[in-house]
What does this fold into?
Amino acid sequence: MKHEPEENSPAASHGPAQSVTDPASLLAAIVGSAEDAIISKDLNGLVTSWNEAANRIFGYTEREMVGQSILRLIPRELHSEEAEILRKIRAGEKIESYETTRIRKNGEAIAVSLTISPLRDPSGRIVGASKIARDISERRRGDDARTRLAAIVDSSDDAILSKNLQGIITSWNQAATRIFGYTAEEMVGQSILRLIPEELQYEEERILSAIRAGERIDHFETVRIRKDGERIEVSVTISPLKDGRGRVIGASKIARDISGRKQVERLLVQSEKLAATGRMAASIAHEINNPLESLMNLVYLARRSSSANDKAYGYLLTAEKEIERVSHIARQTLGYYRESRAAVDLHLSSLLEDVLSVYQSKLSAGGVAVDCRFEDSHISGANRGELVQVFSNIIANAIDAMPSGGTLHVHTYEVRSHEAGGIETLIRDEGMGIAQEHLKRIFEPFFTTKGDLGTGIGLWVAKQLVEKHGGQITITSSTERPKSGTSVSIFLPHVAFASGGGPDGDGEVKIQTGEARDAGK
Amino acid sequence: MLGSELLNIRLVDEFISQAAEAQACRAKSNRSEKERLKVLIVDDQRMIADTLAEILDQAGFRAIAAYDAWTALEVAAKERPEYLITDVLMPAMNGVDLAIAVTKMSRTTKILLFSGQTGIAKILHKAREEGYDFDLVAKPIHPEKVIERLKRL
It folds into this structure.
């Protein structure tokens, strides 16, 4: 340690003060060297004394102020304050740490904290007041800045929180509450690990060691857990917090909920996949449809040239039927895409029959019986491919819901209660049903109750397409045995508006309508 | 229960009755080659054109197969067929242009387009704008349905 005898010597540092011996001089010296303005005034508010600090704070010299009214320092709009102060002083009251505004000689307003006490003569009579004024404009500015910062932090859309080097949360803003579901009271003092999924807890150790090394982590995308247990995707930026001496004492963390963005990204990937599937279907269509046509003709010819009593005739007849079945499926599956823009008139019953025939083998393999009741007229302006898609998705779900068999009910009937009238299609399974808490999320994209088997896109797509036709889709479900099951009801207006039957659509329609007519015969 | 099963049953019935009908038709046509209706079948997939031609022949038509639109146009000019069945997407000249050319040449020729392809909507739309509206079936289609469609034209 450095030895500095001169400075440490009381004689050196307090030399001048020691020469002051009488109490009056001592007091005068103290007043003169005070940091705060010390002023006295009489009961009329005229200044009677004025120290050096008063000079510094207000800009007036002692000579300028002694004998002058104190009102000179008070902004005009606050002049009424003085009367109140004087009234209190006369009553012998003391005013402590009263924060107000005063005016400097140069006209500048300054924030001051005033402590005013009555001054008494030896007989105890109040003759005036002593006033200690502290310049608090610096502090005010600091307070203002802090308040502003706090307001910014609180109004932020991003969660802003701080933690110490042990990972204990030290602050928590409103957005953090909104994003994570915990209040500040619940989280301050708790470990940040509470927000981190178990399998990702190793992240925190890495984050903390980076922070200890003074490093910053930018836009780190990860997963966190809300209070309700739901996982959310977040992007976090973590910076070290340093004390006045530059030591890292903790970290500030800004977390943004990017679940929405991520969902859009996945949707884009998904729709790109669908588009790729469509392109693939188009190219496969050619490669499959032509050989199938040849095969069908050849088998037909072979059968025609064999005798009806021959065994071969029976085999070929079966082969023909099988090829017909494959052809039907090829037209169905490879057909969705080619009629993507057509608006046509159609009968839902024939469309539903087509869809059901695609699922024929799945239905019989799963021991699912079908109960169809069709009482519908035609609808116009519909996009056949899209509606096939809608009903395929729903019927596939219904079949999946009945792994141990049951009956699939498919009913259509006319509805007149709606404005323009339309057709209601009810597809009901006798499966295990969907839990109520899942039901409200059932139309969300990527929400699935089928685990790895589901894409979570089927019902979402169905809803989009039904709504595009000006229709409505609703779902009800019960998990209570023995009446468990799920009902999907789809209303489509008689005049749908899935138009957009531009150049690409019209011609294609004929393929499908022609085929549908044939298939229904 | 399902459409496809019913369809299968109906198909068997149809096959039997149509086979008998075709037999009768062939017997009749043997008597008079000139009475048979001419049908020109065009497909760049030779197997399809040939098999369909044979099937239609057996069904009582006089079928001629061609594998490209230009050849088909020459045949059409010479033979003046009652029917034209053509694939749509073919090299050099597509089936719709062929159909338009044949229509201009012979108003009475009935035309059926058949295609196993996507992406032909623009061609059809263009034809429709020019006032040509052709019937169309999708490949693969059962040959008896082709016959049925021809008879309905």
Chain B is about 55% helix and 15% strand. The interface with chain A takes residues 1-5, 7-8, 10-12, 15, 19, 45, 47-48, 51-52, 54-55, 58, 115-125, 128, 135-145, 148-149 of chain B (CB under 8 Å).
